[in-house]
Amino acid sequence: MKLTPFYKRTLVGLLSLFFIALASCGQSRDVELPEDIKQITNGDLDAWLKKTPFEGLWDPGEDKKAETIVITNVHQVFPFIGKLKNASDDNKNFTGQDGDIHEDAWQVFKDPKWGEVVTYAQLAYDPEELFLSPSYSEMGNPAFSGSQDIKLSYSGNLTATQVIDRKGDSKAAIHWVNSNMQTYLMGFYQNQNLVFEVAFPCKIEEKAMCLGKLKDINKKLQLNISSWENASVDMLQPSDNKDSFWQDPYTGIFPDDYEIPSVKVKTRFTDFKLQNLNVPQQNAAYLFSYENNYGLHYIGFNKEPSLLSRAEFDKAHETQKHIEAGSLDVKIYLSESEKDNLHQIKATAYMKNKQQLTINASYPVKDPDARDEVMDILEHLKIAQF
Fold this sequence. Notes:
Blueprint (H helix, E strand, L loop, with lengths): L4 H20 L10 H7 L3 H5 L10 H7 L7 H4 L6 E3 L14 E11 L3 E10 L5 E3 L2 E5 L2 H4 L7 E15 L2 E10 L2 E10 L2 E8 L5 H14 L5 H4 L20 E6 L5 E6 L6 E2 L11 E7 L2 E11 L4 H7 L5 E4 L4 E10 L2 E10 L3 E10 L5 H10 L2 E2 L3
Antiparallel strand pairs: 1-4, 2-3, 3-9, 5-6, 6-7, 7-8, 8-9, 10-11, 11-19, 12-13, 13-14, 14-18, 15-16, 16-17, 17-18
């Protein structure tokens, strides 16, 4: 039977939910949860989310039996739910031994009054602060959706309100979501290891009713978020404040023909600044540097063609010390030396299109924090391989 594009999209949506459920069943490490979080969730995220005060809890299994279609792709309808980043953008947002999430859960409602509603919760291993990106975009996938769907796009934007509150290890916010020609009110809450999100359709002229619903959710799920409870309708006015959203800590270098950086350097949490590209320094195409009381610190990047394949490149450097960087675990081979009270690091890594990246770093030996800073940059390098 030939599937129409509509049913292909539906199949993708159901597979998406299947893999979400499958990921939640992966092996996980032990985790220590604060007592107040245990009391809120009672150790069962699914059951806890089902208490959200909406009607029409969606069971994809039942809809499949009845051959009815309720929703297509959860990530396309609610693109900001469950897509979280830590400050460095190096968290592994999936469950299991290698991920940062101990457990996560979704519940979707088809409420006769409110429409399609989604709730999400996760319990992380470590209570690091998490953020939402302020925008999202995804093109249609012709391999699954039909060739005519390549022109489809799924996008959204988050707008802050005046409701943003941080207290110790917890923070709460209310955002407006514009996604796929629909407006939602979204609540975000993090308390140490626990993250909770809810989004439901809300017309701007009905924001008083929507705020009342968010306060009802706060009460029924025993979140006790004071900033939600004390929020007024006036506080839902859009704000230009970007502090509650994720900010890219990387600087892109070596753009390709499509202006996409081939290398990304995490510099936001350091004193390193990209120097003027029109003034070559330290024989580097891109130079990051700064000076402090100890002296000059720099890290420079060049690239050049390689006659070797990736396998041959690794073979040629197999006896050299290396670290693995970025999400693709790219090997960076390095050597270290000292001269004239300066510590020097020379490194190289393979890049896409049969190129190699060369890195030269130098800093004063007496600076006690300099090596850790440089090594952190190397370990977080994102180097395009394809």
